Every structure is written in structure tokens, then in C-alpha cells.
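Write out this protein's structure.
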Amino acid sequence: MLAFLLDEHISPTVAAKLVARRPEMVVYSLSSWEAGAYLGAPDWDVLLAARAGLLTLVTYDQRTLVPLLRLLAEHGLKHTGVVLIDERTIHPARIGDLVRALEQLWERDRDLDWTGRVMYLTRHP
């Protein structure tokens, strides 16, 4: 089942609103997951920790995550999914838009195997 880990650049309010709307959804903010142990950690460590926790990482940080995903692929290593967001598509301050888009993604793809999957999140109409 699809479960999200929201990186530190995404407001914890997003996780709270998602769980309020869909209590059965598993979603963590990096600031509260594992007692905040991964706040400020290198993206590589966060990506591997998400894999260990069977969580799909949700991030705006395309600049560093895309090269890390290539590196994983080159070494034949898997991840448990990454959802990339472009701030021109969903601005970080537009919390409601982000909540609706993640909820729609979860409703549509929650039962898929997210191993190795990477996708760009689009705004909910």
C-alpha cells in the first residue's frame, strides 16, 4: 500500500490535513517521522531510510534527488518510490492544492507496487 514520507521542505500541515481527510492513509512529515532524526540529513540517507520504512518519498528537491535516483539505478539498487513536485505546478504555499493532489494520487495508485517508481505530481483539477 502506498505510504508517504514528506520531505522537510513540505509543511507538516500537509500530513496533518491528509490524515484528517483520510485516516486510513499513512503519511509522515520528515519533522515528526523517527522523532525528526532525518531532519537536515543528506538526501541519500533520507531516501534509504524511506526505503527501509517502505515509504514513498514526496519532495520538491528535484535538483539533488534525480541524480541520486540515477545513482541507485546504476548500482542496481531499488527505492520505494519518489513523487517529485515542481513548484511551478503546485507551489509549496498552496497547501490545499498539494493535499488534494496527494489524496487523488493515493486514491488512484495506493494498491500499486511503488518499488522503483518515480512520478511528477500534477495539480488536482
